[in-house]
Write a structure and sequence with these properties.
80% helix, single chain, mainly alpha, Growth Hormone, Chain: A, 391 residues, 15 helices
Length: 391
């Protein structure tokens, strides 16, 4: 069983890294394709990304709940196949109503893949080296993002974006083959009331409140980060890509370096406090001149986000029963996406009205303030890890 888990871990890390490497071009450059190649209006592009956000919120619990009733391996394979098909269709569809349908399938499959692969790792947890496993998993994911982001600008300078979409679609379909080597995960067909009981525990409510407030800063990034780099820092597309890569390198470094220490003397609460402080201070320093100081602030922010990401995954593994991990992780993901959407609704108009640096500064200050109750909170207890059934 330990051998199967170790092999599944290697497959999960490879899938996370290869997937993010292969699809990074769609993260930052897809809106440019929609505007310049398909001639979609700003309101049409805004509608598509609003749909993307809503799909993330709506799909989170059903996707997680499905991972308690079907093995995560099957859902990862299905999500990759649907996403591959979505990319291929996006390379050919030009009419906006049809593109909306394809983009909805893309959004749902992306969230299903991300949640299911996360739950695969959480459900095969061996309890003795959780931090190391999650650190490797998150590190592999962000190494893929780092290399993919760095290479996307070079690729798209030479290749039409439609061919890039075809390449991303073929890559997702090809990844269904190694996904079949993931280990089967425990299942538990629990009634919905049990999930409600899990979520109503005091330590879980505190964890979820923290999750929502932390995720709200992603709303500031989602609406203002790119525009801040473009308008305030006057960076071109290649400069933006290089600036962003500093953060991804920091996240990969801290997750790979600190994950295993969570299995030893490093406590989850001190890491959460340090992560929140670095994330918030980094956001504020981003607003300072000269450019290298701003870039250094973004790198510090990346170290903070990487640390908090470790805390989030390890927190999930410690708080919830493994058999019901899917539905509970889905509910936490729903809160994460909801926090991001609320943040976007607040910070988007604020940035447009008062400058794109203000949302970044306010969200950074909120992260620093959020470190205080985390520092003062009592350590949470652990939930039994056993569950019924297997996949």
């Amino acid at each position: 069983m330990a051998h199967d888990t170790a092999r599944s871990d290697r497959v999960a890390v490879a899938l996370a890294g290869l997937y993010n490497f292969a699809t990074s071009a769609s993260n930052f450059f897809l809106p440019v394709f929609l505007a310049e190649d398909l001639s979609f209006s700003g309101s049409q592009i805004g509608f598509l990304y609003a749909l993307y956000s809503v799909a993330g919120v709506v799909a989170a619990f059903p996707a997680g709940w499905g991972n308690d009733r079907i093995t995560s391996r099957m859902l990862v394979m299905g999500a990759l196949a649907l996403q591959g098909l979505s990319y291929l269709l996006m390379s050919t569809v030009t009419a906006f109503p049809l593109f909306v349908a394809v983009f909805l399938a893309f959004s749902l499959s992306l969230n299903l893949f991300r949640i299911s692969l996360d739950i695969e790792v959480l459900k095969t947890d061996g309890k003795t080296d959780t931090g190391r496993r999650i650190g490797l998993f998150q590190g592999g994911r962000f190494v893929g993002v780092l290399l993919g982001t760095a290479g996307s600008g070079l690729l798209l300078a030479a290749v039409d974006f439609r061919w890039a979409l075809v390449g991303m679609g073929v890559s997702c379909l090809a990844l269904t083959i190694p996904a079949a080597m993931l280990a089967p995960t425990p299942m538990e067909k629990a009634p919905l009331g049990q999930y409600r009981g899990d979520m109503m525990r005091k330590e879980v409510i505190g964890f979820c409140a923290w999750v929502v407030l932390f995720a709200s800063h992603w709303g500031a990034e989602y609406t203002s980060y790119g525009l801040f780099l473009r308008n305030d820092l006057q960076l071109d597309m290649s400069g933006m890509g290089l600036y962003m890569c500093g953060e991804f390198a920091a996240i990969a470094a801290i997750t790979l370096g600190l994950g295993k220490r969570l299995d030893g003397r490093l406590g989850i609460r001190p890491l959460a406090v340090a992560g929140l402080l670095m994330s918030g201070i980094g956001h504020v320093v981003m607003l300072l001149d000269p450019l290298w100081v701003s870039f250094l602030g973004r790198v510090v922010h990346g170290f903070g986000d990487g640390a908090v990401g470790l805390v989030l995954y390890v927190g999930l593994s410690r708080l919830f029963n493994v058999g019901r991990m899917g539905g509970n992780a889905g509910l936490v993901n729903m809160l994460l996406m909801g926090g991001m959407v609320v943040g976007a609704l607040f910070y988007g108009p604020l940035g447009e009205a008062a400058g794109y640096g203000l949302p970044i500064g306010i969200s950074g200050a909120l992260l620093v303030v959020l470190a205080v109750p985390v520092f003062l909170a009592k350590p949470a207890g652990r939930q039994p890890r056993h569950g019924r059934g297997s996949g």
